[in-house]
Write a structure and sequence with these properties.
This protein is mostly beta strands and about 120 residues long. The chain contains one helix and twelve strands; from the N terminus they run αββββββββββββ. The protein has a single domain, classed as Sandwich (Immunoglobulin-like), CATH 2.60.40.
């Protein structure tokens, strides 16, 4: 029997077209792209990737940040995570082409965009 939390996670993954599984080649992911969180900014603030790329956000600040899909007025549940300490990472594999806006929910002036192409 599945718990409500497990069902929520399944629905969330299906809606988002986002997964955490990635292909590796000799222990190195061949489709990774990186975004640094440094001095209250996402860098780069706009990232273009191909479908199926794993995007990895890395916190270089001493303070907790979030990666929350959506815009400040309308946060979404397409993907999201918390990077609570320096060096912490969050990754999402974006499968569906489109434009994915995201922000730090704790510091709503911080925002970025991932553009996914085929």
């Amino acid at each position: 029997m599945r718990t409500p939390l497990a069902l929520t996670a399944l629905v969330f993954a299906a809606i988002a077209d986002v997964s955490s599984g990635t292909a590796t080649h000799h222990g190195v992911n061949t489709r990774d792209a990186s975004i640094a969180i440094r001095t209250f900014q996402f860098s780069p603030d706009t990232l273009r990737v191909k479908s199926g790329t794993r995007v990895v956000w890395t916190n270089a600040d001493e303070i907790e940040h979030t990666i929350t899909s959506g815009v400040p007025a309308e946060p979404e549940l397409r993907f999201g995570g918390v990077v609570d300490t320096r060096g912490a990472t969050y990754a999402a594999t974006l499968e569906k082409p489109g434009t994915y806006a995201y922000l730090c929910d704790r510091h709503r002036f911080m925002h970025g965009t991932v553009i996914v192409t085929r």
